[in-house]
Amino acid sequence: MKRLPVHLLLRGAAIVALLAPAFGAQAPSVAAEPQDEQYAPVCSRGSLLCPDVNDSAQLFGKYVGHDEPSALFYSDVPGSGNNNHYEIRLPKEPPVRPNDAGTGGTFNFQLHPALWFGMALCDTESSPTPGRAACPADSDANIFDSSNASARDYIGNHPGSAFMELQFYPPGWVPWPASQIINGGSSCDAHQWCAAMAIFSLQRDETRADPSGNRLMNNADCQARSGVESFNFAFLTKSGVPGGPPSPLFQTTAGTFTPHRGSTLFMNAGDTVRVRLADTPDGLQAILEDLTTNQSGSMTASPGNGFQQIIFDPAAKTCTSRPYAFHPMYATSSEHTRVPWAAHSYNIAFSDEIGHFEYCPNVVSNNNSGELGTFVCASTTTASDPAGVDADDNPDSNCAPAILSTLIRIGGCTGTDVDFDSTAYKTDWPGSLPDFNAQKRVVPQAVRFSSPLFNGKQEYSRVAFEADLAAIEGGQGCSTVSGAGCTNPPAGAQFYPIYSTVPSLSTDYAPDEHHVVCAWQFGGPFIPGTQNSFGGTSTAEYGSLVPLTYARPTGPVTRFNDYRQVLSTNPCPKLASQGPSF
Fold this sequence. Notes:
Layout: H1 12-23, H2 56-60, E1 70-74, E2 83-89, H3 108-111, E3 114-122, E4 161-169, H4 179-182, E5 192-202, E6 204-209, E7 215-217, H5 220-226, E8 229-235, E9 267-268, E10 272-280, E11 283-290, E12 295-300, E13 308-310, E14 321-323, E15 349-353, E16 358-359, E17 362-365, E18 375-379, E19 399-400, E20 412-413, H6 436-439, E21 448-449, E22 453-454, E23 458-459, E24 462-467, H7 469-472, E25 498-502, E26 519-523, H8 538-542, E27 544-550, E28 557-566
Antiparallel strand pairs: 1-15, 1-24, 2-10, 2-21, 3-4, 3-15, 4-5, 5-8, 5-9, 6-7, 10-11, 11-12, 13-14, 16-20, 17-18, 19-20, 21-26, 22-23, 24-28, 25-26, 27-28
């Protein structure tokens, strides 16, 4: 298996070959290229796949991450941290298509290259104490969040942890496996959605130092081959069998990172999908049931499916891994159940990942090779980016020309928008303007999802809203050490999306056939049928900065990465009192 170095990326010919079904007879005639390459690490380049670490500037030498406004679900009842199910309605696109000038419609891939449901998992070889602490599955014995270094439950004694994101990818732009190259914007199809299980680990010991006084990292071979932040990855398939090796050391282009007709589960815009997450003896299992088409797909994070943990051995010359069953870490879900190396504070959560697309009508290859991964933005338009090309348009050459799109022929760049001037921070969201009837022709439907249930039909008792804006605002003078200089909404943003509630997953706002009597939606406060917009602004909804404790070799530190507001109730229970158990 041939491994690519960091800057050697998939050629345009290979991408065009993958696009042939979308282009039909007009597909350019090109020679096929091998599809068995293994990609170099992507988390260090800001991939949309990867959760934010709590100190990315120190780890990677620059801010690496993305904007993840989230809804968190809390309950002190055992089971709430390790099994749940939701319903989600995948949003449809508007009738007006986007154009290169930025004056047309806005599609889902421009607002959010991924939506996901999350859960904290055990990984005994991951941060904060890789290889040094047991992690009993499904147990609150894993709660270690004290800031007292002498306490038994000091956060520096926390077992190794991972975070699972069940990610949904919108259609219409550059296809997988491009996400491994340009760090975002990848679609599975011109018209249909797909989903993948991604499990992230961090190969760093938070409490031990190397000879230079820095936190102890895994060996150089592991860092080169899988990255410090590594991940297992598998699309959900109809058979439950991965299309390629999920393991960080054995992922391949054509297998792991390419969805395949006939095996990968594809879903239509507008479909209602039931999401089930539950532990099994073999590992966490995700099941998607498309209630509109009666199709289903699944994935289990099991050794039999090729899931592995990378062994933390700083002195080793060669990186190694072992088969591993990833199980949920906690029994419950609360402010005390978190992944202690991540910027966010959550366990059970939904997130809409935003801020990864900026228009660029003039994408050029910086070395004339035409390889994806060499494209940069040469110029922008007044409507799309009036300030012109700036640093976040061209990070690591994360742009793609219109010709590579599966459907919407526009160029764009997918680096993290650190100055908050992209379409995700404009009034291009559903309900972001009072005149929704005028807006609905050019904005997509809002994504809608139910509050989760656990243990059959138990509701979560509390909800929180959280946004990791402070971690992104460093370039605007925000200090995550003190919290000084941070603003919500961020400077440069014309608009910042929020969560609101509506009586149904359906479009007629009536209780639907799935017995969902309240649903969450994401966008602006003016979506018709909205019941509660929690103040109607990001300032009101996401609340104030929250201090989080992290372990260091010299002792605990406090960081302000997130805005968070915790509600005392669950304002959007999923079911009517007579609702059935699923």
